[in-house]
Structure formats: C-alpha cells, structure tokens
Prior knowledge:
The complex is a heterodimer of chains A (343) and B (337). By secondary structure, chain A is an all-alpha fold. In chain A, 71% of the residues lie in helices and 0% in strands.
Amino acid sequence: MGKYLVRRALFMILVIVIVSFLTFLIFVKLPAGDPARRAVGRTTNPEEIENARRAFGLDKPLHVQYWRFLKGFIPWPPSDPVLMLLSEPPRGDGLWLNEDVYFSYGGFIPVREELARRIPITGTLAIGAAVIWLLLGIPIGILSGVRRRSVADRAAMIFAIVGVSMPIFWLAQLLLYGFWFKLDLLPASGIPIGYNGWGGALRAALEGRFILPWVSLAYINAAFYARMVRGNLIETMNEDYIRTARAKGLSERRVIYKHGLRGALTPVVTMLGLDVGLLLGGAFITETVFGLPGIGQLAVQSISTNDFPMVMGVTILGAFIIAVANLVVDVAYAFVDPRVRYT
Amino acid sequence: MAQPLLEVKDLKVHFPTDDGLVKAVDGVSYSLEAGETLGIVGESGSGKSVSSLTVMGLINPKQAKISGEVFFQGQDLLKLPKDEMRTIRGAKISMIFQDPMTSLHPFYKVGFQIAEAILEHQDISKQEAFDQAVEMLARVNIPHPKDRASQYPHEFSGGMRQRAMIAMALSLNPDVLIADEPTTALDVTVQAQILDLIDRLKSEFNAAVIIITHDLGVVAEHCDDIMVMYAGKAAEFGDTDDIYYKPLHPYTWGLLSSIPRLDEIKQERLNPIRGLPPSLIQVPPGCAFHPRCPYKFDPCDRDVPQLLPVDGHHAAACHLSLADKERIRDEEVLARR
C-alpha cells in the first residue's frame, strides 16, 4: 500500500506538470489577444505595450516563460543547473503558485490569493450538493430497485428521467424564478462582500444562499445516482451469491440489505469521488446562474480575458483536485472491496 | 414401509413469459429415503435444477405457476407460509450450487458467511457460531480452518470454495442436501474429491442427498437411484444398475453412448445425440424426445408416453415394447460399449 501510494503520488505530479505545460502552450501560442496590450488598456502607445510585455516576461523565449510558471509549482529552489541558467534567479519562496510570478493580468492580484478566496465557495457548493444528492439518490434507488415495477418505482424513475434530461441552466433559472422572484422564499444569489473564507461560505450557507444552487446541482445528480443504484441492485440480486444467501434461509430483508446492497453500493464510491472532484474543479453553470464567485466562474472569466496565469492556476488546481479524487477513490475501493489490494 | 423423507408428487413449474408458457418442470415425481442418494440427470434445460430449486422454495411464486406436492417430514412444503419455509430452508434442506466462484459473497469473509447461516437458525452467540463455522471447515478438509475462516472467497481455490459451500450447507446438519451440479465448474481431480467428500459426509450426517448433473459418468458410483429427465419430465427412473446396465429409454441410451470411453483401443468419434434439446415453450407433441429418437414409430408424435414401471423400481416413459427395447438395447447399445 505504501509503495502504491508513492507511485501514485509521483504519477500525479507528472500529470500536473504535463497539464501545466499544455495549458501554458495553449495560452501562449494561441492567444486570441495580446495580454500585454490588454493590460495597458486601449489608449496607449507601442512603448507601453513593450514595457508591459517585458514586465510580464512575455518577451523572453518560451522555455524561460514556461520555467517562470513552472517554478511556482516546485516547493523548493530548483537544483538543476541547466534550468537555473535558463531562468532568472528565483524570487520569493517558490511555493505553490508563487505570488511574485503568478498574478492575474486582469486585476494584478496574485493567483494564489484569488483561488484561495474562491475555493470555499465552490467547496461549499460541491460538498453540500453531494450530501443532498446522496441522501436523495441512494434511498430512491434502493426503493425502486427493491420494489421493481411498483408505483413507487415508476414514480422514482420518472423523477430520474426528468432529472437526467433537464439542462441544469434551465432548472436553475426555473428554481430562481419560482422560489426567489415569485415566492420570495429564498435569497437569490451572490455572496455578500465581507463573507470571506470558509467562515463566510458557511455563513452564506446558513443564510440559505446555497439552497437553490445545491438543489439544482443535487437534483440532476440524484436522478443519475438513483438510476445507478437501482440498476446495480437489480443486477446484484440476480447474482449467485444472493441465491446462496436465500438458500441459507436468511430473511428477505437481510438478503437485500446485507448481501444485495453491499454489492450494489460499491460502485457508488467510485462515482462519488469522481463527481465531487469534477465539481470542486468548478461548477461553472450553477455558479454563473446564481452569481457565486467560485472556481468555475473564475475559469471562464480568465479564459475570455486571456488572463493566462489565472487560467493556468485554475487548470492546475482542477487537475490536482481530479488527480487527488482519483487517488482517494482507488484507496477507498481497497477498503470497500476486499478483492482489491494494492502492491 | 415408513413414509419417505422427501416425496415429490407430480410437480409442475411453469413460467409465463412474453413468448409463451415455459414448462420447465412438467409433472415430476420421486421420493427419497434418509441416507439415500438420488441422481437427477439431464441436459441443460431439462428442468433438473428448477425442480430442486422449487423444493427449496427458491422459485418466486410470483414468477411461476407451481403445482403438485412436495412432502417433507409429513408437511407439504409448497403450502407452507414463507416464514416457516425459511426455518426449513438452509437448516433441514440445504443446497450447494454449480459455480462456487460466484456462489459465495465476494465482500464477506468465508467464516462469517457460514456463521451467518448458523446464527439464522440457532440461538447462539456470534463467537459460538464462528467456532462452529471453523469446525465445519475442518470437517470438509480445509487445512488451517481457523485462518481460512477469516479469509475472503477470492483467497480460496475453486475446490476449496466448493468445500466451504458444502460446509455451509451441512453446518446445520440438514436432512436433505441438494447438490446442483456440484462439480461442473471444477477440475476433474477435484471433482472426485468433492463427490467423495459428499459421500463421506452423507454417512457422517446421515443425510439424504440429491445430486443434479448432466454427466452420467460422474454420478455412477455415488447414487442409489437415478432419474433421467428430458424436457421437464422423467424419461427413466431406476437404481444405478438399472440405468447403467439395463437402460430402457432411447434418451438414456444416447446419454450412455455419448460418454467417451478411455479403455477403448480403437479411436472412435464421440457419439452424440442428434439434434438439440427442445424449446420448453413449444415442446414437441407426443414424446418430447421423438424428433431426436432413432427408434420413433407410429404413436411417438401423438401420445405422451407414461412413466410405466418395468419391474418394481425401474420405470421408463417410452412407447417401444419391452421386447423391442431389450432387443435394441442388447444388440445396438450395450454391444457398442
């Protein structure tokens, strides 16, 4: 297990480096607009643009520019002399998203600071939604799997089909229209100024500001999970070992809940890890509709303004979260399924 | 003669499906005494598994029309309420299945799975049940039973899993053990071990055993009686000697001739039965075997042959006259063996 974790961690770092390089290439080689020109504004002269270009390091060769970005990800000063020669002497402490190097072209805010401000919002959104969709999706899935073809099953599957076919932006606006505009039961959107960090996100959540976004995200996933759990349960109940459990004379309740569910819920662990990982990387549509300043919103904003340090920050954060989520899923699976052992 | 331990009378199990009525079991009767071994032999789809699953109460009555009687210790199991049936299933009648690879739950330890069966039927502590499970594993010749009980099924070989299944089935000292193709998924050498184990435990536990198989060769030395099934009906019934040395049904002849012989010097091709088993939705009229039968004559595609006794125990369902059957058997079937 230890060896496996080390190998996976190394692999994770490799993935992040590759992602960072590709992101860098995409946003340096294919800019739809010149970031330096954007930074100095519309009315300007070529000299100012040149100055901005120099200030951002955009006049340097590609590898130097990449190294400037890369070194922000390496938590110690580089020891490789070749790379040292190519780059300027490292400034700052070289920690994750070095504040001296990674600042937004848009607001000249360090990328790290901006990400840190937005993570609690996306985190609250994703985790809260996941809790709701699990509490909703799993029991519904079990109920309709156990009572197949009953009225409850039909109702649950209509709920699920509606959920999986509804576009989230439409559902979100529908909820907004109904519960905020018409009924005025829930706050509409946004995080007020001064609600900072995890404390601020929690405060906003307690004030009900996350309820509509949670429900929009959760409904669609709950529908998906209900269908998955139902399918898994029906499939598991046809397994030979279920027949064995019945042949032992166990009660049907025990057969279903002890033997059937164990097999049926295991894949949920995998799905959940990946889905939450994906959402933590940014739930752009939900964040936009409800005006939540989260990671997804930041990603789209910075892409559309060629703010490529910010894009890199967001991309690498996303890649990191997905990689970690994958690792967590794999490790969790070893605990859930005794047949899986890592060496 | 006292009442038999298990008596199945005119059992019919029909599954209504979208394509029509599947007559999986269509009028099967047999009886079983304590300490006796009955072999039920037939091709896939002959109804041999379904008939015993019905005895176990494992066929969902919502999905099948079940009629007939299954008397066990004086009560008709088909009429028992679900809860009472549960106290018999697993405790007094237990069953082992074809594929030991998939018949144990992959996420639970073997010892737990055996102990679970014991706990369901006996009022003892978890620890006692687990100790009993370990003891049962020892009795089915699993080395280091204590360590093995704390392992998961995937850590067992196929033969060991089948032993564990047998341990589970016998842990409550049942009166009847039904073994549904217990050796089909196993290596040939392991097959013999498992069958010997069942034989030994049968006498130790004084249980009656039903062995279901498609392989006449496998059950020869382990059964007292053999029932040959075809398309949901009994084609022939008799003791082992009757079936092997005096078979009277063309289907049994076919089964016997298709067993490859190792002692023959001349390399001969395998001698299979022509054709395929019939669809259970559209069973051929008359004798279900007639489309594949080389000896069919006038009444075979019209009248359903009854399972008629030949001498006391031995019975066959075939329109051929006894004289004809004996002649064909002696001249064509046994001569070739």
